[in-house]
Amino acid sequence: MSVYFAELLGTAILVLFGGGVVANVNLKRSNGNGADWIVIATGWGLAVTMGVYATGEISGAHLNPAVTLAFAMDGALSWGMVPGYIICQILGGIIGGILVWLMYLAQWKATEDKDTKLAVFSTAPAIKNYFANFLSEIIGTAALTMGLLFIGMNKIADGLNPLIVGSLIVAIGLSLGGPTGYAINPARDLGPRIAHAILPIAGKGKSNWSYAIVPVLGPITGGMMGAVIYRLFYKGAFDMMSVVSIVLLIVTIALGIALNKAKSAKGIETIY
Does the global pTM surpass 0.90? Predict the structure, then answer.
């Protein structure tokens, strides 16, 4: 199996189980309907665990463009392989979204709320404020990439690494997931959002493309900043990509402020 197909497969597995737990908890007339946030956070953690078990020995199981960029910055992946990894991760996210739709095919019509249906595929903020939402995704994804790099520093018995990575995802979900639903992965949000847009889902609404930049740009920025912090304090390294990451951080924050002030922005809530 090629590393690129492995990334596609692993990301599809991640989204099938991750989106699946959201569907099980939120869609009407599902036997899991009404369960709580702990179930969702645990389900996403196990989703990542299964994706890593499936492909870790083949591609490294990044399953996330933000992780791919962070690992490339740390020298664990050739920059020439980055575009292929990211494209396959997004394709895997689309396929995973399609599989979730098929799995819960009978529940879409039974669920009237359009936002609930969209939430199975993509994230949305509890309080819409682009500046705050970007910050949440940046911090959450920086915690993810630093956590993964920390895990890589330790000698771990064969077979346990995916469980530890999954535990990190559960920790992020429980502690940092409230503000935005913790996308922390552009492929996990953009891929299924595309699936939502193209699939004939019964009674669906719009795919909320006006928010889609947050779970893409926020995690990319956060993932790269996580690598910058790790490399600076643990390896004493600071190079051109570190500078690029800091510039991207400034641009992302400035964009959040600008989007809040845009005349076309709707539903923005102030933070003071």
Answer: yes
